[in-house]
Write a structure and sequence with these properties.
It is built from 15 helices and 14 strands. By secondary structure, the protein is of the alpha/beta class. Helix 7 links the parallel strand 5 and strand 6. Helix 1 crosses helix 14. Bound molecules: ligand F0G.
């Protein structure tokens, strides 16, 4: 008999979970104004809000924490971290930052000027925020197929070379760089193929435009290249990562995802001019160049995390769990962005809560229903997140309306996946009875998602 699949690690330390009653959850959600960001974490049973900074570190990472060198300048921890980044990504210059958006802030402070145009395959919110707050524009050049949630293609995070070339040719001299996000979080943790990375970089370079890789989930992307793209099956994850970065000019990294740490980030590049330029912003924003907002112990843990998470077994365990949850949803017929991506399931709320009018925010309603059902916290990636049009102040109902269920790394077991799937099925089974959604009572002018106050209708 063939042995079944199992995790490539065992558990050494546990954290108790608290279950709650539906009556408690109703009270808590109302007090949180139907916004799950306002809940206390202890009111949550299984937390799928994000995979960012929520992973479990290994015994080797924790033991490296004890060896942290907390010297202000020149700490051994920095050199351990720097040499790991140099070895894995092939970049010479490395600047640590406290998280991914801080890396964007430091690098973009040097590179982005008013009126610039920066194409990308669905820029993450903070990336877009750092571009728009500098009065530049972020243009999405993701392939159109990414919007069709039921279409199964292996690299749904890819860049449309046609769309990219249009932006590059129409804005010559005004594009400081292009952002290539791997995996493409916004469209469902969908990977970008090696061929697309190479062709995107070639096209950009033809126009003299450098490429910055937004690398939060680079290792998951490498796993998909290995398992889906012809010619990569026999290569190691580290070989694939090295090739991915050989085509691009720099990276910004949120190490809270594929770095397997709870806090951390960095910038890396081979361009001396960018390094010199970014350095000037690192010191006032993040701190001296050998710590960049991080403790020495954090840098040590990150060095180990990057090494561990570029090993095939670690990634296989992770992606297997995400795919296991997706297979349960297939069994129950619940629609999600297909094929499932690396870090999360994105449930297609418009297709589930068909009786909730669009202007009553179906994905947010589904987020609330899942929390009420079983204390599971997901996150709306839909019409509330989309904010209002800055000019017309109308809600933007044009995009996708999804409930994102992120799976933290090395935290939950497949039994927890069974609970998530069963809770979703229970909501799905009574979907036709859910006819009312939510209405906005108060919202911030920008990034309302985190603090919005909502009223449940009906
Ligand atoms: N880039 C991508 C692709 C991200 O997904 C994130 C964060 C960032 C940059 C910013 O990094 O959080 O370390 O400052 N994504 C988280 C999420 C918050 O939930 O998807 P950060």
């Amino acid at each position: 008999m063939e042995l079944p699949f199992a995790e490539s690690w065992k558990i050494k330390m546990i954290e108790p979970l608290r279950k709650s009653t539906r009556a408690e959850r109703e009270q808590w959600l109302e007090a949180a104004h139907n916004n799950v960001f306002m809940l206390k974490a202890e009111q949550v049973y299984i937390d799928c809000l994000t995979d960012s900074g929520t992973g479990a570190m290994s015994d080797r990472q924790w033991s490296e924490m004890m060896l942290g060198d907390e010297s202000y300048a020149g700490a051994t921890s920095f050199f351990k971290f720097e040499s790991t980044v140099q070895r894995i990504f092939g970049f010479k210059y490395v600047i640590p930052t406290h998280q991914g958006r801080a890396a964007e802030n430091v690098l973009f402070s040097y590179l982005v000027k008013q009126g610039h145009v920066i194409p990308g395959n669905a820029h993450f919110d903070t990336t877009k925020g750092h571009i728009e707050s500098r009065h530049a524009s972020a243009i999405d050049v993701t392939i159109d197929e990414a919007k069709d949630t039921q279409l199964e293609i292996p690299f749904k995070g890819n860049v449309s070379l046609e769309k990219l070339e249009k932006v590059l040719s129409e804005n010559q001299g005004n594009v400081p760089f292009m952002v290539l996000t791997v995996t493409n979080n916004t469209v469902g943790g969908q990977p970008v193929s090696m061929q697309n990375i190479r062709e995107t970089a070639e096209l950009c370079h033809k126009y003299g435009v450098p490429v910055v890789m937004d690398s939060a989930r680079f290792a998951e992307n490498a796993y998909f290249i290995k398992t889906r793209e012809e010619g990569y099956a026999d290569k190691t994850i580290k070989e694939i990562a090295k090739e991915m970065y050989s085509y691009v000019d720099a990276m910004t990294m949120s190490a809270k995802k594929d770095g397997l740490v709870n806090m951390g980030g960095f910038i890396a590049t081979n361009r001396e001019d960018w390094y010199e330029g970014a350095k000037l912003f690192c010191i006032p924003f993040e701190g001296f160049l050998t710590y960049g907002g991080l403790n020495g112990r954090d840098l040590n843990a990150l060095a180990v995390g990057l090494d561990e998470n570029t090993e095939f077994e670690m990634l296989e365990t992770r992606i297997h769990q995400v795919q296991y949850l997706a297979s349960k949803l297939d069994e129950y017929g619940i629609p999600y962005q297909r094929p499932v991506g690396g870090h999360a399931l994105f449930i297609d709320a418009d297709k589930v809560l068909c009786n909730v009018p669009i202007k009553e925010f179906p994905a947010q309603t589904l987020t609330c229903e899942l929390y009420l059902e079983a204390g599971i916290r997901g996150c709306e990636i839909g019409y509330i997140l989309a904010d209002r049009d800055p000019v017309t102040r109308e809600n933007r109902f044009g995009g996708m309306d999804l409930l994102r269920l992120c799976i933290p790394r090395r935290v939950y077991t497949d039994n927890h996946m069974n609970v998530i799937a069963a809770a979703l099925k229970n909501v799905y089974d009574r979907r036709n009875e859910i006819t009312h959604g939510v209405a906005i009572e108060w919202e911030a002018p920008l990034m309302r998602h985190f603090t919005v106050k909502l009223k449940r209708l009906g």
